[in-house]
Write a structure and sequence with these properties.
Blueprint (H helix, E strand, L loop, with lengths): L3 E6 L17 E2 L2 E2 H10 L4 E8 L4 H11 L4 E6 L4 H9 L9 E6 L7 H14 L1 E7 L6 E3 L2 E4 L7 E10 H13 L8 H7 L5 E4 L10 H17 L3
Helix pairs in contact: 5-6
Length: 235
């Protein structure tokens, strides 16, 4: 029987946030940011385990968080890579996954992912081999060069990428191996690698609440939203 695993990427330092510690450890309504994602994945029926990818010098703190919020599902804690692609590869290399296992790759900086969205992504990955969460672009997007607008593409077919991104293990591992053989180590997400390897990726509808904490403004907004969730008792 194929198994379901979550790989939570928390290897960044959050330099754009300007905080004194990595953003995945900042407080969010009484819990560290990463704990919100961990508890969302723990609520997914059939999850076999989680892999946490974080800074090697923060291993002790990661272990403490895993013990408190991991619901006994954390199977490995591994060091992040030099790039996001490297961190994802380290997570994919952490356990002896079977080829048809489904791995769910998620950014710890997106704390408000809903279990229902995770399950939909998993279902589509099971059917198509790969799936990822997106929301339709609502703003006009400009393409620029040399400081000037070059084109305004139609919004109709444009999406903002979110996570999770879900794959059959053999598909995403093969895509990573292909990229590594070509010397490519700078992909900003795993879908890029899957597309480059010739795989189709099913779009799963996301939610504006599945925001990514990148800037100080994002953190302020996330704390406001998290306090509302805490008051409502929904998490």
């Amino acid at each position: 029987m194929n198994s379901l695993y979550a790989i939570i990427l928390a290897g960044g330092r959050g330099s754009r946030l300007g905080a004194e510690e990595p953003k995945q450890f900042l407080d969010l309504a009484g819990r560290p940011v990463i704990a919100w994602s961990m508890e969302a994945f723990a609520a997914v029926s059939g999850i076999a385990g989680m892999v946490l990818v974080g800074p090697e010098d923060e291993r002790a703190r990661m272990e403490t968080i895993a013990a408190r919020y991991g619901h006994g599902l954390v199977r490995a804690i591994v060091a992040g890579g030099e790039t996001r692609q490297g961190s994802s590869w380290n997570g994919l290399s952490a356990l002896p996954f079977d080829d048809d296992d489904i791995v769910i790759i998620h950014d710890a900086a997106r704390p408000f992912i809903e279990p229902a969205t995770i399950l939909e992504c998993v279902g589509e990955a099971g059917a198509h081999g790969a799936a990822a969460v997106y929301v339709h672009a609502t703003d006009t997007v400009a393409e620029g060069a040399d400081g000037f607008v070059r084109a305004i593409p139609s919004r109709e077919g444009l999406y903002y990428a979110q996570t999770p991104q879900c794959f059959r293990y053999r598909i995403i591992r093969g895509a990573h191996l292909r990229a590594r053989a070509a010397g490519n180590d700078s992909a900003t997400d795993d879908v890029r690698l899957a597309l480059d390897a010739g795989h189709g990726v099913k779009i799963v509808g996301g939610d504006a609440r599945n925001m990514k904490i990148t800037t100080a403004f994002d953190l302020e907004a996330a704390r406001f939203f998290a306090e509302g969730i805490k008051r409502d008792g929904t998490k």
